[in-house]
Amino acid sequence: MSIELMTLAWKTDLPSGRKLVLLALCDHANNHGQCYPSIEAISRKCSMGQRTIQQHLGELEAVGILVRHFRSGRSTLYKVEPRNFCIPAAPAVLHDARSIRTISAPLPPQIPSDTAAKLAPIIVNEPSNDSSRKRQVLRGTRLPPAWELPRAWAEWALQQQPSWTAEHVHFVADKFRDHWTALPGQRGVKTDWLATWRNWCRNEHALDDDKAAGPCKWWTNDATVLAKGSELGIAPLPGESMGAFKNRIQRALENSSNCMPIHVPPATVVHLEESTKIATSTANRAAALHAARALKSRCSSPDMTAY
């Protein structure tokens, strides 16, 4: 607070609205007339709307009493210029000739206003940036397409899921990236991606011991991924990323693990083959017998004996 500036501001002949805004700025200002309160803080102090505050600030700047410095990402810096205050001249004191001879008692010494201003404590009220920070946080961001899993996030996942391996953590990270980058609009916007990653890991299943073994690490490189897809009869689609192809393989593995395989007994297979052979042999013998009878009837005909 600058008492000197507030004293001068009270003496100005400005309209009530502009004077109240000027007093609020002087209440925040230091000895150099500089302050940076937010519009919300000035509005609360003056009990005015923010549009009215903006209008009065522009009017004070137009007459040279105020200079504004707009800063990117920060509150505006205000500079109060007391040299341009419109202070009316003090009325002239008319002395009566008869009062010259009057002897009055001496007045007690008074401290000059400059000295009183120097002795008064200087209090600078910095504006609160909590509201602006909250607005920035609530806006949220999208996950970059080239996002890579930070090392600290991977270490947290290994602690949360003790059965996971480092390779499986990166596989889960690929699923995480492909899922959120593919979502359109606000569905893919999050305010805290670390918390989103933690919830994603908590919802994932634990890795079985047989899946964590070395030969089953099919997701470590592109060659093993293609080999696993060929084993399952799955081929990459045109334009499909390797991460999306891994996700399809993983879903196929999870679906296959939930189904019980059906095995046909060997005896049944042998029986089917034997029955097929028997049926085929009987049909062949019948056809051969029919052909032999037809040939015999032709040979016994009169036309054939003439030759």
Tell me the number of helical segments per DSSP (H or I, 4 or more residues long). Answer: 13
Give the SSE string.
Answer: HHEHHEEHHEHHEHHHHH
- Percent of residues in helices comes to 40-55%
Report, as a whole number of angstroms, the end-to-end distance: 141 Å
Mean residue pLDDT: 75
Q: What's the shape?
A: rod-shaped
Strand content: under 5%
Largest sheet: 3 strands, antiparallel
Assembly state: single chain
Protein name: Helix-turn-helix domain-containing protein
Pfam families: HTH_36
InterPro entries: WH-like_DNA-bd_sf, WH_DNA-bd_sf
In short:
With 307 residues, the chain is mainly alpha-helical. The protein is 53% helix and 5% strand.
What does this structure look like?
There is one protein chain. This protein is mainly alpha-helical and 307 residues long. Among the domains are: 3-86 and 115-119, Winged helix-like DNA-binding domain superfamily/Winged helix DNA-binding domain (Arc Repressor Mutant, subunit A); 144-257, no CATH class. It is 53% helix and 5% strand. The protein has 13 helices and five strands.
Keywords:
13 helices, WH-like_DNA-bd_sf, Arc Repressor Mutant, subunit A, three-stranded antiparallel sheet, Helix-turn-helix domain-containing protein, 307 residues, 5 strands, mainly alpha, WH_DNA-bd_sf, two-stranded antiparallel ribbon
